[in-house]
Amino acid sequence: MPATLPRFIVMRSTLLGLSLLGASVALPQHAYAQTEPTKAPPHQKWSFDGPFGTFDQASLQRGFMVYDHICSTCHGMRSLTYNDLLGIGLSPQTIGALAHSKQFPGPVDEDGQPTTRPGTPDDHFKAPFPSDAAAAAMMGGVAPPDQSRLALIHPHGADWLYAFLTGYHIPAPAGVAAVPGKFYNDWADGHFIGMPPPLVNGALTYPDGTPATVEQQAKDITTFLVWASDPHRTARHHIGKGVVLYLIVLLLLAFAWKKKIWKRLHGGA
Ligand code: HEC
């Protein structure tokens, strides 16, 4: 990892354009099979699947970029501190520079004016809005939920997030009445949601050269959100494996011991 975070070109204007366009134009185009959001989303292959799964670090780092450059414009993630990003392999220098680039509310100055201060690695991720009420007011009535536990809210966590992030249809499918200011998504409750499609092909440039398709970004941000919902899981798995190994060794020793003692009792030694 380079010492400073690489810059990205995020096409926020695209997001804005889409949100202005809204779902108000429904051009009847193609026959469309509606999916029930209650159905289980298709299963994707995840690096962290299963008891021995480990997070793909490159994907985690790309996922954090997606969060930092796109999702964090609207969604907070208050349970994480910048230092927690050591867990996805960012260096202390990168983390320091990243935290420093964010402005936090500081103490009031002598004239009673509010000030700002640069962030430190111990700060929790900066929230985009001062409060949920302010967020709701800015976002047409619904506050974007905090993303700290997003991957745990839905029964099919990762698969649902991926399906949802790749499940927009703009305009809404033929025959579906558009809802002004809402966007059609196969996997949203009631199919319409207040969040404009956040992912756009090539909206950012990954420094590792991975093409930033919508699907790739969805995969990476989902991996990051699953990690973020339980950042200490990897450490716990390591300890767990150590404990199991220790118990196996103990068991073997106990067997050897038992054999030895019984041999003696039978008059062998
Ligand atoms: C322009 C602001 C904005 C951006 C950028 C944004 N979101 Fe949202 N998001 C919202 C709003 C507003 C809602 C609530 C919408 C609603 O409930 O109608 C929401 C809801 C969601 C939900 C739905 C939760 C649920 O249970 O239904 C998920 C998941 C989500 N966002 C993920 C993301 C991810 C991942 C990103 C970044 C790739 C992102 N959002 C970027 C504004 C945004």
TrEMBL record:
Signal peptide span: 1-33
Domain Cytochrome c: 58-229
Ranges that cross the membrane: 239-257
Cofactor binding mode and count: Binds 1 heme c group covalently per subunit.
GO CC terms of this entry: membrane
Annotated stretches, region: Disordered: 101-122
Residues the entry annotates as binding heme c: C71, C74, H75, M195
Cofactor field: heme c
Alphabetical list of Pfam families matching this protein: Cytochrom_C1
Claim: Isomerase is one of the keywords in the record: no
Gene Ontology molecular-function annotations: electron transfer activity; heme binding; metal ion binding
Gene3D superfamilies per record: Cytochrome c-like domain, Cytochrome c1, transmembrane anchor, C-terminal
PANTHER family assigned to the protein according to its UniProt record, in alphabetical order: CYTOCHROME C1, CYTOCHROME C1, HEME PROTEIN, MITOCHONDRIAL
Protein name (Swiss-Prot/TrEMBL): Cytochrome c1
Source organism phylogeny: Bacteria, Pseudomonadati, Pseudomonadota, Alphaproteobacteria, Acetobacterales
